[in-house]
Automatic annotation (TrEMBL):
Transmembrane segments: none annotated. Residues 61-128 form the Glutaredoxin domain. PROSITE patterns: GLUTAREDOXIN_2 (PS51354). It comes from Quillaja saponaria (Soap bark tree). InterPro entries: Glutaredoxin, Thioredoxin-like_sf. This is Glutaredoxin family protein. Pfam families: Glutaredoxin. SUPFAM superfamilies: Thioredoxin-like. PANTHER family: F1N19.7 (PTHR45669:SF7), GLUTAREDOXIN DOMAIN-CONTAINING CYSTEINE-RICH PROTEIN CG12206-RELATED (PTHR45669). It comes from the Eukaryota.
Length: 157
């Protein structure tokens, strides 16, 4: 059977069903390959960071911070990281050690970082990115948006 089809130049072309089906299948396969490559790129971008997953953080962005202003540089560093995340429209869970009276977040962070505490500490999909210096470096190099896309959870906060 023959089918009539408009081509990209606005004209008509005649194709039999077999060639039309072949063309459709090739188009679908090309799109699947493109989507698969994008998925792999999302996963690859996080591989260089150590696997350290906060509780309930395997599919999200988790940031350990403090709102205690006694040590201004630490408070400012936390604000800088949150500002960069907000700038990129990233949805993140902030775990404020000062506001957590049960010390649950402090214990989580100590466990994740082998006994030490670094604020802020940023985790994306169970990978430890680092503190303010690492986040700023990733942002300035243009890598940070790709890392956040790997998480695929963005919204205006």
């Amino acid at each position: 059977m023959l089918s009539i089809r408009c081509n990209s130049g606005g004209g008509l072309s005649l194709k039999n069903d077999a060639s039309l089906i072949k063309e459709i299948v090739e188009h679908v396969l090309r799109n699947l390959k493109i989507k698969w490559n994008l998925i792999r790129q999302k996963e690859d971008v996080l591989r260089e960071f150590p696997e350290k997953c906060p509780p309930r953080g395997s599919e999200s962005v988790v940031v350990y911070t403090t709102s205690l202003g006694v040590i201004p540089p630490t408070l400012q560093a936390c604000a800088r990281v949150k500002s960069v995340l907000d700038f990129h429209g990233a949805e993140f869970e902030e775990r404020d050690l000062w506001a957590d009276k049960s010390n649950e977040y402090l214990e989580e962070l100590r466990t994740l970082l082998g006994g030490r505490v670094e604020l802020p500490s940023v985790f994306v999909k169970g990978r430890y990115l680092g503190g303010v210096m690492e986040v700023m470096k990733l942002n300035e190099s243009g890598q940070f948006p790709a890392i956040l896309r790997a998480c695929s959870r963005q919204s205006g906060r």
